[in-house]
Amino acid sequence: MRPRLAASIVGLIGLILLGNSGMFAQGFAGAITGTVTDTSGAVLPGTMVSVKHLETGLTRAVEADPSGNYSIPSLPVGEYELTAEKMGFRREVRRGINLVVAQEAVVNLTLQVGSVVQEVTVTEAAPSLA
User: Fold this and answer.
1) Which residues on adjacent β-strands are paired with residue 123?
2) Tens-place pLDDT, residues 79-128
3) Any domain includes 13
4) Which site from 28, 44, 60, 90 is most exposed, i.e. has the minimal number of CB atoms within 10 Å?
């Protein structure tokens, strides 16, 4: 009888751990997603979008898909700087993106025609608490 009880307890503990594994995986991460367009609203596939965690220096980059969408998942929480670059357009830099636990921050980007050497910088303002 005891071996059967021990096996049941071990099985129950295994089920509990498997059920919570998704929670642990998402615990301290967030994501940044969005769409890249030009000033006319046309999507810009192939745009390189990179993020930099300002505290640790972690940098990740992705390329916008054929619909102009990008997604950078599994990012540690904290403050980020996001940069978008495409040949024939000005580089756009977004600062002040503060990612919190389990958040999917949507940051849509609009690139202006120009040289990559030119840069547009936007600093996100913290929402006011009224």
Assistant:
1) 95
2) 999 999 999 999 999 999 999 999 999 999 999 998 756 556 666 654 43
3) no
4) 28
CATH code (residue 44): 2.60.40.10
**Alpha carbon of residue 101 to chain centroid:** 12
Mind listing the pLDDT tens digit for each residue in 23-60? 444 458 999 999 999 999 999 999 999 999 999 999 99
- For residue 40, give every residue at least 6 positions away whose Cβ sits within 8 Å of its Cβ, in sequence order, or none: none
pLDDT of residue 115: 77
Per the CB < 8 A criterion, the answer to whether 36 and 111 are in contact is: yes
Domain-located, residue 94: yes
Which residue in 91, 84, 90, 79 sits closest to 34, CA to CA?
84
In 3-state terms the chain splits into helix, strand, coil percentages (rounded to 5) of 20, 45, 35
Amino acid at 8: S
